Amino acid sequence: MGKYTKKSPKFFKNIREINGFKERRCTQCKEWFPETTEYFYMRNKSKPEKGFNPECKKCSSKRSRKWAINHWDIMKECFKRNHKNPERKAKEKERKKIAKKQVILLNIEEKTKIK
Ligand SMILES: [Zn+2]
């Protein structure tokens, strides 16, 4: 078995550059798209240096939908649990309230910083 490294030609098979524009081939539908967030999801939003997902947005959402259909029982259970548990609902409401407050506070902080 050969070593699989980032430098191997395998890694670059799905990436090409045309007139300075990077393109990436989706590993699912084999179509070429510009390597931007418009067509691909980031691997990790907080770490953009990690790059893009190997499959395009369309295929990603298709795959997660397929997963949901195949695992519908699990999904249904999750929905039920979320909706029928008043304690959890209240917690969720509280969490959202706190999050909203934090966003407002952050905004105020930003504004005062600029001034
Ligand atoms: Zn695709």
Describe this structure in words.
The structure is a single chain. Strands 1-2-3 form a three-stranded antiparallel sheet, with no helix packed on it. Strands 4-5 form a two-stranded antiparallel ribbon. A hairpin with a 2-residue loop joins strand 1 (15-18) and strand 2. Helix 2 crosses helix 3. The chain has 115 residues and is of the alpha+beta class. It is flat. The longest helix is centred in the last third of the chain and has 29 residues, at 86-114. 52% of the residues lie in helices and 17% in strands. It has two domains: 9-66, no CATH class; 71-114. It has helices spanning 9-12, 57-70, 72-84, 86-114; strands spanning 15-18, 21-25, 32-34, 40-42, 52-56. It contains four helices and five strands. Bound molecules: zinc ion. Zinc ion is lined by residues 26, 28-29, 31, 55-56, 58-59.
Question: How would the blueprint of this fold be written?
Answer:
Elements: H1 9-12, E1 15-18, E2 21-25, E3 32-34, E4 40-42, E5 52-56, H2 57-70, H3 72-84, H4 86-114
Antiparallel strand pairs: 1-2, 2-3, 4-5
Helix pairs in contact: 2-3
TL;DR?
It contains 4 helices and 5 strands, in the order αβββββααα. The chain has 115 residues and is α+β, with helices and mostly antiparallel strands.
Structural class designation:
alpha+beta
The arrangement of helices and strands along the chain is: HEEEEEHHH
Overall average pLDDT: 84
State the domain count: 2
Helical content class: 40-55%
Question: Which percent range describes the beta-strand content?
Answer: 15-25%
Poorly predicted spans = none
Radius of gyration: 21 Å
Strands, count: 5
Distance between the termini: 60 Å
The biggest beta sheet reads:
3 strands, antiparallel
Which outline best applies?
flat
What order do the strands of the largest sheet run in, or round the barrel if closed? 1-2-3
